[in-house]
Amino acid sequence: MKNFAFSIPSAFCFGKNCVKRNPEVFSSLGKKAFIFTSKFFPGCKNYALQDVEELLGELGIEYTVYDECIENPPVMSCVKASKLVEEYNPDFLIAVGGGSVIDTCKAANMLLKYPGHDVYETLFTFNIIPNRVTEDILGTWRIGPNNNGKYPFISIPTTAGTGSEITGASVLDREDIDNKAGTAPFLFANYSFIDPRYIMEAPAKLNKSTALDALGHGLEPYIDTGSRDNYMVEALGEIGFKLFAQFKDHLLADAMTEEDYEKQALACTIFGFCETLGQTGVPHGLGYPLTHVKGIPHGLACGIFEGEYLKVFKDTTKVMRALNLMGFDSIDEFADYVHAVLDQYVDITVTRAEIDEWTDTFYNTAWRVARHPEPFTPDDVKGIYERTLAKFIVD
Ligand SMILES: [Fe+2]
Q1: Per-residue pLDDT tens for 73-84?
Q2: Which residues, at least 6 apart from 199, have a Cβ–Cβ distance to it below 8 Å?
Q3: Which of 20, 82, 243, 271 has its Cα between 20 and 30 A from that of 228?
Q4: Which of 326, 389, 124, 338 is nearest to 213 (CA)?
């Protein structure tokens, strides 16, 4: 077994009413808070924001609410938010929302730490981080300062998908390279409050997409090279797969119970640990152009590749171990499940020329290709695109 490092720097509290049960956490961070959130779908109430505002009011903490965070946040939207934070001059930050909100908060926080630097270099060049431990020392580059932003911050997720509440990176739209990318992974929330009640109101499309996105955060590092250097990815992933088995049928049938949502929220957090320790792999790389070019939300764009990707494995020992824990008997059964859950929400047309272009783009990202544990050709990549998107190809 190789040496490995294990660190989950965010303290997190899980369960109903966990925000209001922990007022001392909020008051310990100061007297003035800047809240990041987004506008919710019509008819959906932001219960998490309501809880936070009520609590801050009771504690006498001054606050402002910035609700302009957008889905798939571009870097420049984080720059804009950072300027507003600077003007408000808070003691701490609170991110209330889905992954895009939390990612915007993290990135803005990091930009505020390094004023005057090039924003892309600040966010994406690991060299700017002081005191980071490199792979030469520990066999991992995923250990460094916990919160490398200017302010302490609290994350409160309202979806169970990204795991961003306990991971150290943001996934942002990079205008400079015309694609999405993850930031340096050193932006962990100081505290995270995960209340399953907040995800129960989410529309089915959002909840199903985020559930399979989260599954990918555990499954991808588990079956590719992501777990090779970190035993904990395997151990945590298997706990998450067992939880997924318990709500997967209800997820497909739109019959989620309160207990199912609790299991989904916990599985998402556990898979977030796997992502932090092992990173995402091939399906997430395949999904980025669907978001960037076609505007498909991240969870849906990545989740739909989880099934067909598994068909390229020649040695299926580990793949089947994961699928059996999830309650599937074959790769075909799992791939059919993914199609049944998500295809109904994909509303795009795709050309073969686009698939060729995306295949080239993916294959030029050497580290993603290297994540697959077996020989992996451009034809393999193209085949995953073609099988996954077969219903949407128009020529
Ligand atoms: Fe994801």
Answers
A1: 999 999 999 999
A2: 157, 158, 159, 160, 207, 261, 264, 265
A3: 243
A4: 338
- Ligand 1 centroid from CA 58, angstroms: 36
Distance, CA of 377 to CA of 371 (rounded, Å): 13
Longest Cα–Cα distance of the chain, Å, equals 61
Q: Which residues surround ligand 1, an ion (CB under 5 A)?
A: 213, 302
Find the 203 Cα to ligand 1 centroid distance in Å: 18
The domain 204-392 is classified under which CATH number: 1.10.10.10, 3.30.43.10, 2.60.40.730, 1.20.1090.10?
1.20.1090.10
Fold of 11-199: Rossmann fold (3.40.50)
The b/e string for 102-138 (b: 16+ C-beta within 10 A; e otherwise) is: bbbbbbbbbbbbbeeeebbebbbeeebbeebeeeeee
Give the Å distance between the CA of 170 and the centre of ligand 1. 10
Flag the least confident range among 85-89, 142-146, 321-325: 142-146
Q: What is the pLDDT of residue 134?
A: 45
Q: Are 220 and 280 within 8 A, CB to CB?
A: yes
Q: List the domain boundaries for the chain.
A: 11-199, 204-392
The Cα 88–Cα 178 span in angstroms is: 32
Per-residue model confidence as pLDDT tens digits over 177-200: 877 788 877 788 999 999 999 988
